[in-house]
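Researcher: Quick test of sequence recovery. Tokens follow.
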């Protein structure tokens, strides 16, 4: 059902309104002084996520400042392993730590703590009442492969080598992790929808490190199962898949997963994607976050290239990956002007 007053949601449903909607991955975050101030006040990232008034405030900050067409829930993909029973910490300057790392500890030993998801639903409910009517509200989760890379290594890892090794060495155990993440992800996304989001995105940030057969097994198959189970509960809620680094595997991902929209990273040539992916399929992306930092003529050229390649199909403007903390606010303002010109 076209919503009429939500341009981003309309494009996800296949409309091409002639005015390109825009939001930015990681738009709630450290490049915003108001975010840094609130985070310092709350003492840490998880404190912010689990304080539902603060998380709602952070979700709304970029909407108030820039008027993006979409608001993305403020949370993290690692809340799911936390709810599966792992300990989760974010050390300043070090990134996330999950323990015990599953490379040397059994999934079965974890005691699930699904109540850790409840505050996120409360945040959705609080944001919902404060969003402008024309703003689409996006929920999200990580895809099983990307989340599993953190669960296995206990932290971010170079080329996701620990998880890839583990998946080759013990595919059954790795399947168990992927299945556990997948099942909880369906519940988690459904809970976000029940609380009020309009659409959801699956972040598969590390999809690019897998060989074709492993991509089929650990990205496409688990994503297809999540989408099918989610759609059985919420047939009208669009799902954006973002398999970063998938490159030439994108057509197979588009054909086989059932996602409604595909997010492209900045390494994908927009002209290639426009030709290689089905013409009705809405695409999202794919400005290089570094072109946004550069600004000026480099930014103008990159934006033109993207807008012209996707002019004749449903397109959502976004970055190819999350906005970087040193991005000048003025460049974000200029980007909005260029896209909405
Ligand atoms: O997009 C948004 O504005 C919504 C919130 C959001 C966050 N993380 C907040 C966050 C979303 C959608 C994510 C997704 C996420 N989290 C991904 C996938 C997307 C991507 O960028 O690849 C991944 C891999 C994570 C895991 C994660 N969370 C890492 C590796 C880190 C540390 C690195 C970093 O950027 O600081 C985080 C922390 C995190 N998640 C921050 C934010 C705003 C920074 C925390 C802080 O220091 O304030």
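Model:
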């Amino acid at each position: 059902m076209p919503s009429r007053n939500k341009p981003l949601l309309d494009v996800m449903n296949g409309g091409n309104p002639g005015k390109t909607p825009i939001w930015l991955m990681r738009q709630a975050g450290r490049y915003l002084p108001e975010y840094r101030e609130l985070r310092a006040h709350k003492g840490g990232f998880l404190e912010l996520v689990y304080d539902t008034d603060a998380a709602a405030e952070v979700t709304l900050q970029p909407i108030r400042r820039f008027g993006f067409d979409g608001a993305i829930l403020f949370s993290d993909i690692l809340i799911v392993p936390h709810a599966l029973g792992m300990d989760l910490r974010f050390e300043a300057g070090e990134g996330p730590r999950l323990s015990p790392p599953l490379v040397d500890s059994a999934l079965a030993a974890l005691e699930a703590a699904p109540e850790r998801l409840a505050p996120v639903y409360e945040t959705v409910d609080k944001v919902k009442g404060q969003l402008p009517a024309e703003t689409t509200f996006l929920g999200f989760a990580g895809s099983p492969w990307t989340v599993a890379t953190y669960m296995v290594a206990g932290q971010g890892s170079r080329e996701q080598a620990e998880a890839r090794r583990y998946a080759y060495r013990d595919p059954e155990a790795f399947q168990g992790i992927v299945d556990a993440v997948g099942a909880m992800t369906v519940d988690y996304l459904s809970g976000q929808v029940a609380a009020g989001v309009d659409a959801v995105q699956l972040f598969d940030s590390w999809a690019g490190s897998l060989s074709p057969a492993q991509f089929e097994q650990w990205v496409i198959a688990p994503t297809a199962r999540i989408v099918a189970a989610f759609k059985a509960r919420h047939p009208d809620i669009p799902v954006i898949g973002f398999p970063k680094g998938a490159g030439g595997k994108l057509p197979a991902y588009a054909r086989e997963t059932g996602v409604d929209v595909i997010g492209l990273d900045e390494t994908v040539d927009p002209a290639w994607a426009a030709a290689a992916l089905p013409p009705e399929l809405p695409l999202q992306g794919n400005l290089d976050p570094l072109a946004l930092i550069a600004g000026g003529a480099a930014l103008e050229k990159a934006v033109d290239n993207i807008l012209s390649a996707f002019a004749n199909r449903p397109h959502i403007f976004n970055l190819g990956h999350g906005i970087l903390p040193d991005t000048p606010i003025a460049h974000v303002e200029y980007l909005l002007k260029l896209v909405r010109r």
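The radius of gyration is 19 Å.
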